[in-house]
Design a protein that fits this description.
about 150 residues, about 20% helix, three-stranded antiparallel sheet, alpha+beta, 9 strands
Length: about 150
């Protein structure tokens, strides 16, 4: 798996950027970029999802309307938690949304196990810890922090 290396620049807005290698775009042969894009790209809200207050856009990538594989979609529904209270229920939904967004790694044979932990780092800051056992036998571990207003 090779991607253009994507880094998170600002946890407040979860703005990402591509990394450079000299004058070229850097590549990433790990799953880090795939995990970042899976978690922090907005998936389309399900028809029964309650949108955050004041939102009418169900978001999502336009390509999901015509997937190559039926049911395939890109991104996560973590953005739905942007204005949620810091409760155990919100943490459970964060774990669920993150696992859902990363499930393609299992389905496509890149991973044999995915584990996600969610916690409140401090007021307004969600922590996600991701562990992936790769089919190659190696393991990927990464912790992310995101401000609820910035998801």
């Amino acid at each position: 798996m090779s991607d253009i290396r994507t880094l998170i620049d600002d946890v407040a807005t979860f703005a990402g950027d591509w990394s450079l290698s000299g004058i070229d775009l850097a590549s990433d042969d790990t799953i880090e970029t795939a995990v970042i894009l899976s978690l922090f790209t907005d998936a389309r809200a399900a028809p029964d999802d309650e949108l955050p207050a004041g939102e009418t856009d169900r978001r999502g990538w336009w390509g999901d309307a015509v997937p190559e594989v039926e049911g395939d979609c890109w991104g996560s529904r973590l953005w739905l938690l942007a204005r949620e209270k810091q409760t155990q229920e919100t943490l459970a939904r964060a774990r669920e949304y993150a696992r859902e967004a990363l499930s393609w790694l299992l389905e496509d044979g890149h991973a044999t196990r995915i584990d996600v932990h969610a916690s409140w780092v401090r007021q307004g800051l969600l922590g996600l810890s991701v562990e992936v056992d790769l089919a190659s036998g190696s393991q990927f571990r990464k912790a992310f922090e995101a401000r609820l207003g910035g998801l």
